[in-house]
Specification:
single chain, 135 residues, mainly alpha, 6 helices
């Protein structure tokens, strides 16, 4: 399965006309699951192994690297070229990483982070599939 979202204009050009992706398909394709998994795994290692003074630096480094890698992974590995889709997926990584805590725990009170992070993930995940990227 290609991770590029099929739009009405793209499917008209292809020989085997397939319907454009619906809400559910766009939802699955917008979430950069591989990068979020990488971020969660590395954050877990830092949380378990690093001392308190180096945790913040390690968490921010992992976040920064994963943020930069998200669009690169989509372009080079998944072969996604639609800029809107790449932007929305990168935004999804930002929202998910915020909700998971990591480096944001150093700047936002834990209870507030949990509340705002949960709301952000729920709203972003629900709303972005309504966006159908231009071809």
């Amino acid at each position: 399965m290609s991770r590029t979202i099929k739009t009405a204009a793209v499917t008209e050009v292809t020989e085997a006309a397939q319907p454009p992706d619906g809400y559910k398909e766009r939802l699955l394709k917008y979430i950069p699951a591989e990068v979020i998994t990488l971020y969660m795994a590395l954050s877990g290692v830092v949380g378990a192994a690093a001392g308190a003074s180096s945790q913040a630096i390690a968490h921010w480094t992992i976040f920064g690297v994963a943020l930069v890698v998200t669009p690169l992974y989509q372009l080079r590995i998944l072969k996604i070229t639609n800029r809107t889709q790449i932007l929305i997926s990168t935004g999804a990584f930002l929202v998910w990483s915020f909700a998971l805590g990591g480096p944001f725990e150093q700047v936002i009170k834990a209870a507030d982070l949990k509340m705002w992070g949960s709301m952000a993930v729920a709203l972003y995940t629900f709303l972005v599939p309504f966006v159908e990227p231009a071809p």
